[in-house]
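User: Second chain of the day. Same drill as before.
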Amino acid sequence: MTHIPRTLHSFERIAFLLLLLPFAGCAAGEPGGAAGGDIVQTALHDFRVEEVADDLVRPFSMTFTPEGDLLVTERPGRLRIIRDGVLLPDSVEGLPPIRAPGRGARSMSGFEQAGLRDAMLHPDFAANRLLYLSYVKPGPDSLGTIAIARGRFENDRLTDVEELFHADAFGNGTDRSSMWGGRLAFDHDGYLFMTLGDRQWPSAGDLAAHPAQDLSNHNGSTIRIHDDGWVPEDNPFVGREGVLPEIWTWGHRNAQGMAVHPETGELWQNEHGPQGGDELNLIEPGLNYGWPVVGYGVNYRTGARIHSGTLMEGMEPPDYIWVPSIGVSGMLFYTGEAFPDWRGDMIVGGLSGRRLARLRMEGREVTEEETLLQGIGRIRDVRQGPDGFVYLAIDGETRDVDGPATGIVRLVPAGRR
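Assistant: Same format as last time:
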């Protein structure tokens, strides 16, 4: 358990973290990357890991249709359908133009991290068939910009596709201008949110002048729009001169997971720190979450200090941090019947940590963390299926964009099939 109370000051929080690290893990024994028929034992539920489909390339996001189809985005620019446990051979037609990496691209470049990102159904999808996509669209520079489009998903294709938003989030002038963000979520009132990364601007020099601290661009922000792309009049910066009206929060590095609490309606995000210091944040309008001025991470290569400190007036501290980083990714609040003792818990994937974590919360406080899986692969997305099982999209282990193929797996309660 890596529980960092918000009430502790910076040095106390670090000391508390170091004290807890040796005891992190699962109370029922160290979980593993089991597959096939092996049983994984955890504190509250035992389960098996089943393969759902393979032969996917860099899957980023999953969403289930009311008919039971599983839609999967592949970062090279394809939307795939898994139907009755079978990956259909043809990708969905009708997607907007996507700036996607070609064969042989490498993951250290921002170009590789471009492509198709998230997929989200409209809250009234059963009636209107509207599917929302986040993606990197071609632009005047070499990398383009991230955008949101929606279209009508019928007969396994998209029609009536229209762009709703594209970011004014400029790159750092190099081919490593990544940190796109791109997670989507609808809240209980039907507003659409998207995370935007900082485009990998250097966190050096005058930290307060970093683009993520500049409200005249979308770098390092969370935006909020209506389902048709219009800006809500009650967004926190509407009408303020020199500030982009879509911005809901700012001061983020690269939020890769986002979920709405099923009971409270609160919007939560997880965010990549640099070397150390992945964050979990409750997202509230108009707040500055501090990147790169405050934080817990250090420089990747040298271990040198990045931030001015860990706390600063006017900047929101994280509700929870992971040190060392796990490379936080997709997340959800579990509400299903298959794992009743997990109801209300947050489940978070990890890329660099190759782990799946379960967090129990009381209000804003994380009171327990359990590792459900370790070493299963780079978990890119986590979704709850209509069967109550937990589905994981596994990203590739190599830096090549186009291989090897990976797949989707799911957690099934022991004794269930």
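Helices lie at 10-20, 125-128.

User: Great, on to the next one.
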